[in-house]
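Reopening this one. Same input as before:
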Amino acid sequence: MKWLLMALYFAGCQPGLNDPRDLPALDEPFFRCRVQPVIAKSCATFTCHGDGRRFYRVYARNRLRLGGDETTRNAPLSAQERAANFESAIAMIDPQNPLQSFWLLKPLELAAGGYYHRGAVIFNAGNVFHDRGDPDFQTLNDWVNGAREDPACVEPGSNQ
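Same output, byte for byte:
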């Protein structure tokens, strides 16, 4: 038993396994005003990432919400929900190789260089983006490549 406990202790103390990762400095206004509408439309359904049990979850109007009830489901996103969406997305970006990030490749069709995506199989509809030329994929790609937006931009659907 002593050896098992020691092995578990040292397994958790290996350099790199638990070290915090440097996250890339990506533009929040671009995410809020350009990327958020794409992920709300393409990823936030209840059967996909609008399910609170998913590792990657997306908060959106009339979809998954952090709190409230049915009377507030269609309210604009709260600052907490916007921040959660931004932080969840940024966590899937590889700072050393952003263009090979899980964020970009997971929703991309295998034939276009993407990864296996369970939803594509379950719904037999192919992946979210069939190729890199898709305008919504380009929006995600632009964000990862450092695209910037005016901080005063108004998020679609925010009622501002």
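So the earlier flakiness isn't reproducible anymore. For the record, Residues 13 and 19 are 10 Å apart (CA to CA).
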